[in-house]
Design brief:
This protein is an alpha/beta fold. It has three domains: 58 residues, OB fold (Dihydrolipoamide Acetyltransferase, E2P); 194 residues, Vaccinia Virus protein VP39 (Rossmann fold, 3-Layer(aba) Sandwich); 115 residues, Beta Barrel (OB fold (Dihydrolipoamide Acetyltransferase, E2P)). It is built from ten helices and 21 strands. It has a seven-stranded mixed sheet, sandwiched between helices. The longest helix is centred in the N-terminal third of the chain and has 18 residues. The protein is flat and about 65 Å long.
Amino acid sequence: MQPVTIESLDQEGRGVAHCDGKVVFIDGALPGETVEFSSYRRKPTFELASVSRMLAPGALRVEPRCRYFGTCGGCSLQHLEPRAQVAVKQRVLEDSLWHIGKVRAELMLPAVHGPAWGYRHRARLSARYVAKKGGALVGFRERRSSYVADMMSCEVLPPRISALLGPLREVLGSLSIRERVPQVEVALGDAADVLVLRVLEPPTDDDAALLRAFADRHAVRLYLQPRGPDSARPFHPPEAADLYYTLPEFDVRIGFLPTDFTQVNHAVNRVLVRRALALLDPRAGERIADMFCGLGNFSLAIARSGATVVGLEGSAELAGRANQNAQANGLADNTEFLTRDLFRIDAARLAALGCFDRMLIDPPRDGAAELVKSLGDGAPGRIVYVSCSPATLARDAAMLVHARGYRLAAAGIVNMFPHTSHVESIALFAR
């Protein structure tokens, strides 16, 4: 096999090299390294491969902390020095903005980052009973596979939850419905730890006794989810968990249900909200839109400034809980939460909402193309865009800059998911 030198990393954290006129994407290789590789997928213009032999390791390579790294698909960058991970993600953002959107930020912001380990307050773990493995497996999927990784710990889960993987495997493997529990969702708040078991059939009385004993022994609250996310209900203890997280800088407490979307990394979320508010610079008396507002993560912090906030959210359930959070925080008088499908909004529907002085946009991976297209002459003079996809941010930035007259005043990454290739970012558009 011909040796190759790794030139860069792609958006999936794979090493990029060229060989015989093809681009080769190599799992586990880092920039500057010389490797031999073994291809597992060949196409006319590119190949996907993994390292078969390391000839010259790079200076940025470190020993992965997790013993399952390379098998478990939960992390892809533990072998890269943490500061270099941040630099790679910043480059991914800059390259996306330029190559996709043909825009460059006037100012690249310092990266938002926080703890590198034990940071995941939300996780969706797969479960599967495999007799040949000795019982139930609980964990993330294996890399490039539908199999569940055979793991007894996880370095990105909080230690108390990582320590539960073994006991959780034991109790699930002892149930009569052990082959009918395909998923365990972890939802952690400031005062409660919840595990949501996806159950394809109800537990028997004996199963229920085992699950109650597990919950009591490990001080967790169990929910059962027989169908979709909205079907999750408390099992033991039978009362609903008091799940919430706080934004102390803004004196805000945000309640949520175990299957609601919340940010995975609570520590980084606090810094993200601070950064977003600093860029948005809300003023008392202004009218500000929070698009894709969810539970009110940004809305309530903005409302603390004295501004009037209108939050728009596609899910009526989330919008309702955002309103409950506003009431609980004494912010109901200057907040309003509306249910709107922002993927189908147009100029007329947006104009019907009235004028806004400033706007925050925090869409899912699909971005906010229809919303951006709907902005007219009366659009806000300042927009803060929080993104979980550099590609869709770049696409929407092109529209804002080239068709709507905004400047991309600033942009930077938010390292919400250390040791993964996932890139969150924040951008400021002004005109």
